[in-house]
From TrEMBL:
Residues 5-210 form the Luciferase-like domain. It comes from Occultella glacieicola. InterPro entries: F420_MSMEG2906, Luciferase-like_dom, Luciferase-like_sf, SsuD_RutA_monooxygenase. This is LLM class F420-dependent oxidoreductase. Keywords: Flavoprotein, FMN, Monooxygenase, Oxidoreductase. It comes from the Bacteria.
């Protein structure tokens, strides 16, 4: 039997002058029936006023771990170069325990130059950022094995991105979930490339769940036919309007 289709809300921590607006949105999303609540790992808003209100990712996930009861939580996605990987593994393990085993570790190479420059990280190039992620992923897994107490469960790793040579190779080697930021045609093509990488490393591509942004109810079944089992709807502050999230949930429940 194929895995169930799941719906996530990405509550983007931007343009909310009061954290209570985000806390309320988490409560509403869980009550609405979403399977996962994501945030993102940036230091500034990505649209609108890019110097506007914004909150940090991982301290927020700790609060969500206490606040929620059922949903999985995580970042879509953590900037791979923003934290020492052993520390990140420990942070993830701790949030996993606080939540009772509901954390997804979403991670990617990073891309927003303003985050890097203003917080003192070396921006480099897409290639150097992915090389750093390649170095860090085994360290994260190794640290998981050393931590005492161990994570509640084997923490799923979600890798976001679609670079054909480097990112998809890392997906083949390390990911439990691959989040593609692409349209259907590109997803189909890159799925074939991922399968080739999986063959090279001796891994069954069916073990990697596919994830993407919600395309709307009219197109969603086409993505499901390509193996997508997780759809995410991005929702921004300050209002955190969940109308589209509820539409996606109604589609999920009807199918």
């Amino acid at each position: 039997m194929s895995a169930p289709v799941r719906i996530a809300a990405q509550l983007q921590p931007q343009h909310a002058p009061d954290y209570g607006l985000i806390r309320d949105a988490v409560l509403r999303a869980e009550d609405a029936g979403v399977d996962i609540v994501f945030n993102w790992d940036h230091f500034y808003p990505l649209n609108g006023d890019t110097d506007g209100h914004h909150f940090e990712c991982w301290t927020m996930l700790g609060a969500w771990a206490e606040q929620t009861e059922r949903v999985e939580i995580g970042a879509l996605v953590t900037g791979g170069g923003y934290r020492n990987p052993d520390l990140l593994a420990d942070m993830a393990r701790t949030v996993d325990h606080i939540s009772g085993g509901r954390l997804i570790l979403g991670i990617g190479g990073g891309w927003n130059e303003k985050d890097y420059e203003n917080y003192g990280y070396e921006f480099g190039t897409p290639g150097t950022r992915l090389d750093l992620l390649k170095e860090y992923l085994p360290r994260i897994r190794s640290r998981f094995e050393q931590l005492n107490p161990a994570p509640v469960r084997e923490i799923p790793i979600l890798i976001g991105g679609g670079g054909e040579r480097k990112t998809l190779r890392l997906v083949a080697e390390h990911a439990d979930i691959w989040h593609s930021f692409s349209d259907l045609e590109t997803l189909q093509r890159k799925g074939g490339i991922l399968a080739d990488h999986c063959a090279d490393v001796g891994r069954d591509p069916a073990l990697i769940s596919r994830s993407t942004s919600w395309p709307g109810a009219d197109e969603a079944e086409q993505y499901v036919a390509e193996g997508v089992r997780l759809f995410t709807i991005g929702v921004s502050g300050p209002d955190y309007d969940l109308t589209t999230v509820r539409d996606a949930l109604a589609w999920r429940d009807a199918r």
